[in-house]
Write a sequence for this structure.
């Protein structure tokens, strides 16, 4: 009798697992992380949004992977390249993964020889944010609209981060593809671009909206165009350009702005463990506490998990040759 | 105003919970500071999870105290073993270590600990005074001025190695400047002298270079020479009395202390000027303004006091733009800013109007935290100083291990260990040949700063940036300094003993 019950239960379980293979696999995956130490690599120095965001993600993923210990390791260098190369080259056993700048997409698109990874092959865990880009001008510049900026007689100066950085590449691509009368001045790290605007040595920036929201709220400047995002208070740049290549460039930056603050591991993490990581990621990024802390930090939250992120990365990497030319041009200037 | 000011102090010291947290923060901050390689920013990043649950004031006081006292203990290893924890401490090594060699470690420690405490407190005062004029002062400094300030710092090389060593000093300084060009070119965005080695893209690790130039050669020299660090035997004078005489050096040089603290905190206020600039600029200032500059590098107590006041003074300064603009004045402050946001402190102009009590609490936390740190260190430093009388052959291996670990953890790149060995060989060569090594650090620290801001200034204004009013003032200072240096070198060539810097 007992034997029979057992047999029924066993076959029941067998049937269950054939119907819900994912479920059984995920359970194995979750069990794997019990007692494991996970190296969460942040491909940049402590401080700054990537690090803060990464530490928050690690803390809450640990909460949803029982028995695991997340150790955040900063691996700065070469504009996120070192850390990302490290992540890609590590053992795909699920205990090493991390976060890096989405701007590495540009490097891969242009065929940078120092890139030792393939973003389409990485084990995508998720992304926390969408980070729409904006064109911001200072109050003192007197510029009120995108149209006015475009028809300026004298060029204005815009601040960006160091040469070769994602923000420099984006700004240069915009300026070249949209033929804007802007001189890009590089080398402003962190928030130094805000100081430069306050000093009046530059008249604007092209950057991510979340970073400059407060600047605008304090009345020091205004957004005149936006790429991506759901806000409707600023006109979308794509509605204001007609040139085909310019539209495509805006499209590239738009698709890249939809995937920000990524988490990914090396290619080939076993399916069950990857599923466990993705589930934990999903639970972490939808935890009300997580969302509240992210909000306090001014980090935008608009999460997506797993294959959705992979699809978006693949889409962003699928670009027409003209766009890649614009990108390469921006890189050679940068 | 007065009421808010002292109300905040009263609340701070009368809350056992907050004071307890401050004690923990001081101890932790001092321990982290004494370990080379683990900078203040990493320690704050690691401490952030602990403050999640705390209330706003307690959490902010905890982190700020930890950060503020971090630099106070870094000097211990610089003075006793010639091991600077980072670029700032390297300036303290120049005169601190020679003092230790003369058996005066306790005096040097007494002076430097007191100096950093006083510097921290003056920094807090400057913070309070500057609040109303913060914006115009910060906005006065643009990349044009950054370039000229870096150049001013570089021109102090003329004082660090004057007399018979001026040529050697300039060569070593240029060597440092050359190495500062390794890494990503700020003009073309291409890596320079990096080969296929990505770890060199961000330049030579400053911690590694400083350890290799100062710590390793000193330890090798100690181990080969035998005997203790201190050439003088431990005598009766070595006691709290010696330490106290060191403490008294600070009020005796009150005018220097005041100047270097204020310079330090003003440099700290300006985002974009590196923290090490403060310590080196103030060291150079102490040498240049001294009546007997030839004593520097051989154990002048002012050479310990000036960089220490500056590096603690800058913490008060760098808190200003962090709190009122949300723009951190140093990398440590960038991490602190993140933590403040988690605690619900929204930086901005509203801090003065709405949260003035919190601002005062933080100022007082700087003052009280520094006082606690000074008291603690003064009590323990006598026992630490005894180590300088221990046989060096026993000490050196431990310290070399310590240095190696510090070099690795600062960037977590194993390649830095190779760099450490290579540079150590060069540093040891300099040491044996009696060449000055401090110009090297100045070149390395300020070279990158000068190059990047020069390029920015040229992009912005072309060569006309030299004609900005502030630029003219700074150019005037540099020219005056060079003329003075020439005059003094020329004069000392005629009879007077020249400066013998061997650090």
């Amino acid at each position: 009798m007992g034997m029979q019950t057992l047999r029924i239960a066993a076959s029941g379980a067998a049937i269950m697992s054939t119907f819900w293979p994912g479920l059984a696999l995920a359970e194995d995956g979750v069990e794997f992380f019990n007692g494991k130490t996970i190296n969460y690599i942040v491909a940049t120095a402590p401080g700054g949004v990537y690090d803060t965001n990464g530490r928050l993600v690690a803390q809450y993923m640990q909460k949803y992977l029982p028995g695991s210990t997340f150790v955040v390791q900063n691996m700065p260098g070469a504009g996120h390249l070192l850390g990302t190369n490290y992540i890609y080259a590590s053992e795909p056993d699920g205990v090493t993964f991390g976060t890096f700048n989405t701007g590495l997409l540009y490097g891969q698109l242009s065929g940078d020889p120092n890139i030792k990874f393939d973003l389409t092959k990485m084990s995508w865990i998720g992304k926390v944010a969408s980070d729409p880009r904006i064109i911001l001008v200072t109050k003192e510049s007197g510029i009120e609209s995108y149209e006015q900026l475009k028809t300026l007689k004298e060029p204005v100066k815009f601040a960006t981060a160091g040469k070769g950085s994602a923000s420099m590449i984006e700004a240069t691509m915009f300026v070249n593809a949209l033929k804007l009368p802007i001189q890009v001045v590089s080398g402003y790290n962190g928030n130094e671009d805000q100081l430069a605007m306050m000093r009046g040595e530059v008249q604007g920036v092209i950057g991510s909206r979340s970073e400059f929201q407060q600047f605008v709220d304090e009345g020091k400047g205004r957004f005149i165009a936006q790429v991506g995002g759901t806000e409707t208070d600023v006109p979308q740049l794509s509605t204001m350009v007609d040139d085909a290549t310019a539209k495509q460039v805006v499209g590239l930056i738009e698709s890249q702005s939809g995937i920000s603050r990524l988490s990914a591991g090396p290619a080939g993490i076993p399916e069950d463990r990857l599923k466990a990581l993705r589930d934990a990621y999903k639970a972490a990024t939808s935890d009300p506490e997580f969302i509240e802390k992210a909000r306090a930090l001014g980090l935008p939250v608009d999460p997506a998990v797993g294959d959705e992120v992979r699809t978006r990365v693949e889409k962003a990497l699928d670009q027409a040759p003209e766009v890649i030319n614009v990108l390469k041009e921006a890189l050679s200037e940068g | 105003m007065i009421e808010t000011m002292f109300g905040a102090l009263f609340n701070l010291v009368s809350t056992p919970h907050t004071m307890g947290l401050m004690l923990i923060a001081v101890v932790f901050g001092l321990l982290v500071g004494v370990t080379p390689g683990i900078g203040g920013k990493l320690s704050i990043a690691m401490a952030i999870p602990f403050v999640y649950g705390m209330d706003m004031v307690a959490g902010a006081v905890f982190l700020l105290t930890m950060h503020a006292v971090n630099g106070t203990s870094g000097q211990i290893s610089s003075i006793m073993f010639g091991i600077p924890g980072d670029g700032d401490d390297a300036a303290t090594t120049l005169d601190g270590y020679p003092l230790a060699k003369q058996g005066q470690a306790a005096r040097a420690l007494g002076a430097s600990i007191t100096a950093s405490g006083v510097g921290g407190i003056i920094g807090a005062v400057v913070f309070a005074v500057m609040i109303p004029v913060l914006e115009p002062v910060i906005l006065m400094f643009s990349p044009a001025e950054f370039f000229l300030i870096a150049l001013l710092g570089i021109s102090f090389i003329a004082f660090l190695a004057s007399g018979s060593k001026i040529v050697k000093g300039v060569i070593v300084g240029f060597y440092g400047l050359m190495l500062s060009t390794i890494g990503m070119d700020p003009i073309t965005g291409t890596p320079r002298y990096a080969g296929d080695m990505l770890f060199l893209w961000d330049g030579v690790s400053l911690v590694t270079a400083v350890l290799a130039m100062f710590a390793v050669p000193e330890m090798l020299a100690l181990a080969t020479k035998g005997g203790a660090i201190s050439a003088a035997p431990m005598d009766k004078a070595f006691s709290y009395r010696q330490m106290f005489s060191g403490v008294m050096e600070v009020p005796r040089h009150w005018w220097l202390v005041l100047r270097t603290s204020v310079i330090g905190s003003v440099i700290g206020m300006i985002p974009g000027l590196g923290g090490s600039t403060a310590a080196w600029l103030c060291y150079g200032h102490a040498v240049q303004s001294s009546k007997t500059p030839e004593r520097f590098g051989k154990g002048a107590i002012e050479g310990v006091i000036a960089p220490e006041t500056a590096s603690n003074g800058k913490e008060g300064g760098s808190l200003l733009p962090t709190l009122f603009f949300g723009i951190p004045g140093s990398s440590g402050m960038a991490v602190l800013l993140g933590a403040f946001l988690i605690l619900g402190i929204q930086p901005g102009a509203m801090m003065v109007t709405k949260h003035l009590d919190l601002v005062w609490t933080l100022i007082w936390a700087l003052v009280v935290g520094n006082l606690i740190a000074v008291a603690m260190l003064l009590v323990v430093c006598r026992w630490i100083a005894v180590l300088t009388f221990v046989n060096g052959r026993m000490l050196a291996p431990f310290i070399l291990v310590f240095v190696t670990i510090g070099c690795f953890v600062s960037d977590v790149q194993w390649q830095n260990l190779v760099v450490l060995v290579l540079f150590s060989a060069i540093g040891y060569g300099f040491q044996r040949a009696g060449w000055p090594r401090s110009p090297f650090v100045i070149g390395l620290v300020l070279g990158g700063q000068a190059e990047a801001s020069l390029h920015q200034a040229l992009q912005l204004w072309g060569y006309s940036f030299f004609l900005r009013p502030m630029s003219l003032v700074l150019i005037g200072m540099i020219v005056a300094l060079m003329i003075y240096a020439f005059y003094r070198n020329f004069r000392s060539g005629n009879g007077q003993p020249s400066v013998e810097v061997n650090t």
Remarks:
- The first strand of chain B starts at residue 183 and ends at 184.
- The two ends of chain B are 48 Å apart (CA to CA).
- The CA atoms of residues 217 and 429 of chain B lie 8 Å apart.
